Amino acid sequence: MIWNPNKECMSRDEMHSLQSKRLNKLVTYVYHNVPFYRNKMQEMDITPEDIQSIDDIVKLPFTTKQDLRDNYPYGLQAAPPSEIVRVHASSGTTGNPTIVGYTRKDLAVWSEVMARALTAYGITRDDTFSVSYGYGLFTGGLGAHYGVENLGATVIPTSTGNTEKHIRLIRDLKITGIACTPSYALYLAETLEKMGLSKNDISLKVGAFGAEPWTESMRKEIEDRLGLKGFNLYGLSEIMGPGVSYECSEQNGSHICEDHFYPEIINPETLEQLPVGEHGELVFTTLTKEGMPLLRYRTKDLCSLIPGTCACGRTAIRMGRIVGRSDDMLIIRGINVFPSQVESVILEMPEFEPQYMLIVDRINNLDTLQVQVEVRKDFFSDDIGRMLALKKRLSDKLKSVLSISAEVKLMEPNSIERSQGKSKHVIDKRIL
Ligand code: DLL
Q1: In degrees rounded to 5, what are phi and psi of residue 302?
Q2: Ligand 1 pocket by C-beta < 6 Å: which residues?
């Protein structure tokens, strides 16, 4: 089944002309409504008239996460505040989150692209679907939620946490589909087994997994233990949220909703556009967004576009799995974490040397974060009570900045190895 064959299966020529028309309109819109883009275009000596075809996109400026941060909170918003009906946010490196405002039309596009994804996974109105991404500023929960409602299936907004209760609901309500991070899916499988149950006691058939990198071997393990078929779901808050691309039954790459999000692959060093099929950094232009439209947003995600047609009948171009990132962002339990966020907390506290190490691991299928930090000589003591209080203060601060809890390990002065060259602050033991 295909949700919107007119858009998902249009000929390449039709897609090219739709994208060209939309890009021209978008550039005119941001030129008149976002001083940041007008200034950039004036510096580059281009006007909206120079952008007639989607192929002219290479003339346009890039946008980076730093630009969003510099223009915090609403600097890149194009629509007037009265048109904004919802705001989401994603974590930034310096404590300033990235703020994304959506108009009513943006939300309609979002629930449309999510309905396309769910239909590609085989979900219909007859399904009962549990959304187990976090609800809140994170786009996962509400983004998937409205897609399920738009499709007409029954949504169970379980969010995250309380896993045993969730499993009872999966069993008792005969839930057939679930959206969550792949690591949470593995944790669910483990909890199911701990409760003395197995995949034969539940009726899950589809999983929509994303928000963090995962592998074919994780897919196989989740499928074996939960008795479902797992599909990739990709997206990022700056562009929309989940639903930017999704796998179909062929499971050979994820179809991009390219009538709304125009993809390019660039060389992250030279910023040159690369031909389809080559690996590089994924860049998106939001062709129809009103709230915060972005030109050539650098996702920092590394992947390639897959040429050729797909046996499922969709003509929309596919992207391969994300194989890495060109910055130092870590994704821990689906939450974006930058080492510099930890550094800024440590630097604010006089008790610590600016010497720290993040140890990321996956234990019992759940990501863990340990922060090792060196206590300054004057503050280091044998008084356990004092040390425990210090540890707690740091844990609390980290939790409020990172939105996930980290285990703090206080280290003796001079115990963290000093690096000779580029300092290394992360050991990621997860095998992906
Ligand atoms: O993670 C949106 C989302 C929610 C996608 C639920 C899918 C499901 P952000 O918090 O802004 O938004 O993080 C975006 O997460 O640039 C990728 O690095 C990573 N990411 C998202 N989906 C995938 C995926 C949401 N399927 C960042 N595979 C992106 C690998 C993914 N990485």
Answers
A1: -100, 125
A2: 90, 133, 139-140, 210-213, 232-237, 241-242, 299, 301, 322, 325, 331, 336
The residues spanned by each domain of the chain are 1-323, 330-428
Q: Which of 88, 110, 212, when mutated, tests ligand 1's pocket best, judged by the most ligand atoms within 8 Å of its CB? A: 212
Neighbours of 304 (CB within 10 A): 20
Sheet holding 366-375, edge to edge: 407-411, 366-375, 352-363, 426-428
The Cα–Cα gap between 229 and 432 comes to: 19
Burial 187-222 (b: 16+ CB within 10 A, else e): bbbebbeeeeeebeebebbbbbbbbbbbeeebbebb
Q: Does domain 330-428 have CATH number 3.30.470.30?
A: no
- What gap in Å lies between CA 126 and CA 104, rounded to an integer? 27
Nearest atom, ligand 1, residue 235 CA? 5
**Structure confidence by residue, pLDDT tens digits, 74-125:** 999 999 999 999 999 986 545 578 999 999 999 999 999 999 999 999 999 9
Beta bridge partners of 263: 284
Compute how many other C-beta atoms are within 10 angstroms of the C-beta atom of residue 124.
13
**φ, ψ dihedrals at 344, nearest 5°:** -65, -35
The C-alpha atoms of residue 23 and residue 107 are separated, in whole angstroms, by 20
- Which of 322, 327, 329, 330 best tests ligand 1's pocket when mutated (most atoms within 8 Å of CB)? 322
Q: Does domain 1-323 have CATH number 3.30.110.30?
A: no
| pTM beyond 0.90, yes or no | no
| Chain segment 250-296, per-residue pLDDT in tens | 999 999 999 999 999 999 999 999 999 999 999 999 999 999 999 99
Euclidean distance between CA atoms 318 and 313, whole angstroms: 12
Q: In sequence order, which residues have a C-beta less than 8 Å from that of residue 231 and are 6 or more positions away?
A: 117, 120, 121, 206, 207, 208, 209, 246, 247, 251
